[in-house]
Design goal:
The structure holds two protein chains of two kinds. Chain A has helices spanning 6-37, 40-48, 62-71, 128-131, 139-150, 157-179, 196-210, 212-240, 245-253, 269-280, 337-350, 355-383, 388-419, 425-446, 450-475, 481-486, 490-513, 524-531, and strands at residues 79-85, 89-99, 105-114, 120-127, 286-290, 298-303, 313-318, 324-328. Chain A is α+β, with helices and mostly antiparallel strands. Chain A has an eight-stranded antiparallel β-sheet with strand order 4-3-2-1-5-6-7-8. Chain B has one domain. In chain B, helix 1 (2-21) runs antiparallel to helix 3, helix 1 packs parallel to helix 4 and helix 3 runs antiparallel to helix 4. The chains are: A alpha+beta, B mainly alpha. At the A-B interface, helix 7 and helix 12 of A face helix 1, helix 2 and helix 4 of B.
Chain lengths: 532, 92
Amino acid sequence: MIHLKKDETKTMVAVHGWSGILLGLLLYAVVLTGTAAVFAHEIGAWSAGHVTTQSAFEKPIDATVRRLAALTPAKYQDDVNVFEIGDHGLGVFFHRHDVDAKGKPAERGIYYQLDNQGRILRSVEGLDEDVFGPRNDDALSSFLVDTHVRLHLPNPWGLLLTGILGLAMLVAAISGLLIHRHLFKDIFTLRTRANPVLANRDKHSVAGTWSLPFAFILAFTGSFFSFFGTIGVPVVAMAAFSGDIEALSEAVFGNPGTVDARPVAIGNLDRVSADAVRRVGEAPTFMAIEHFGRADSKITVFHNPKTSDIEPVVLVYEGASANFIQAKPSVGTRPSVGGTLTGIMGPLHFGNFAGMLSKAIWFALGFAMCYVTFTGMRLWLVRRMDEKGSFAWLERTLTVVGFGLPLALTVSAAAFLITMPLGSSVYWTPAGFLIASALVILLSIVAPSNAMLSWTIRAATGALMLLLPLLRLLAAGGPGWGEAMAVGQPVIVALDIAFLLVGGWLVRECWRERRPTRTPEPTLDRVIEARS
Amino acid sequence: MTLPTLAALLLSAIPIILLCMGDPKRLRAADRKGSGMTPSRRRTLAALACVPGIACAIGGDAAAFFMWLGGCAMVGWAATFCFRTRDPDSVS
């Protein structure tokens, strides 16, 4: 494919191998949770037993927002964000621009959480970073997303770390492309029972080659999101807005216009959402009201991409009259290449631009990325099998992360299903994950061999996955298959079936490995034994 | 939206699977020498596999194009796995 000189190839192999082995375990964690997070919305509906299918924006919201405005102090009524939460309930955040304890721009206000009947479930007052935490009914999906986005590290360190991991993935993809001389010749060659180096090389390179375009796309868009707020915005603000991030946001993402602070009641929000649905063909995902209750108020309505497109739709309305003004690009006020590129970053990263089919394909691509990362580290180890003494610990670490992480995520799902009815899932979902992780690490210390460690973790994961649908039904009180289908939530049934199939397959594989006739996957231990 | 994308994927899946079945290196690794496809036939099948994606792109259907691209990657990977070589002493 691309021919490099021998010493250049050697350097590239070193870059590829060491960048992978140094950051591969963290990258694997980010990619695996990202793969699951493709279905975060569906996992939320499955785990919390959501049975409503009509969007909150397809029901009247105008009276609700006015009622909440009457309850809210005037100091928080500069801007309002309206969005869906839980089982198609409504989240409404009345706020004003402020600064946090470190002097950074933030939003301070009152966040109302309403159910799908318009009843206030909870209201929280404070800065945006404090009020938008996980809730009892979305603790599992929030946990998945937060692990993927910032590995639960405080801002900005978590975002910086995941951004660096994205860049490492980009480096690995480019160096992998350069060192693989027979990219297309080898694309169909998978010798699973060849010698360990060849078998692992084939597994890694075949999956890597097929998913190469998406390795670039997912790594680049992921890094973009991580570095956007942490580095990009502050640097641009410093260069062009004298460090004023608020002014940058207003200029780049806002709706500039003549200031008119006269008090004028907000227009009919139901008219705005009905018009937005008519123009786009589906309900909005988010509504932002600037200068609430003023003559210069603007309402920005955000939608998923239209059919056949991957760029999200943003519509702008006059706040006072609720009249449509324009379709706005994601960046700036006029269409531009930069605006379009920024707009498509999200759909290309999350795969949420065409319903379940695009999500399913992105999930499979995410799984391929996990597989490439895992088999790459395994190949690095197998190539150094003569140095067993130095790298046996790394093989166990790889098993702990590679198989232990799915187990810990499954335990966190089980913990959520058990504790959600008790109202303590926000605590127990991450606690379950940590307890399972600690047990896996402990097991890795006491297990007699890596093969035994791997077998135990996979068997436990399979058994627990088989239990998840039962826990959902019996412990969490979720809807049965008949009820879920009747209310138009087939995703609940689909996820139950997926857990049963994957769990059943894992248990079956582990059961078969106990038979002496079946040769298990070669491990460093066995390879060394066979050689001596 | 879903049906045209699935149709494009299916149309590309056929040549991809044929390419996999007739891949010379895969067949050599399986010790089935001499039964691989000729380069011209492989090029033709590869071009045919790209036609639905190009049609999506020319038609301005960006969503279908990206789903087709990702779907083809997964079809190719799955086909390679299904036709994997199981012989213990394969050639390198």
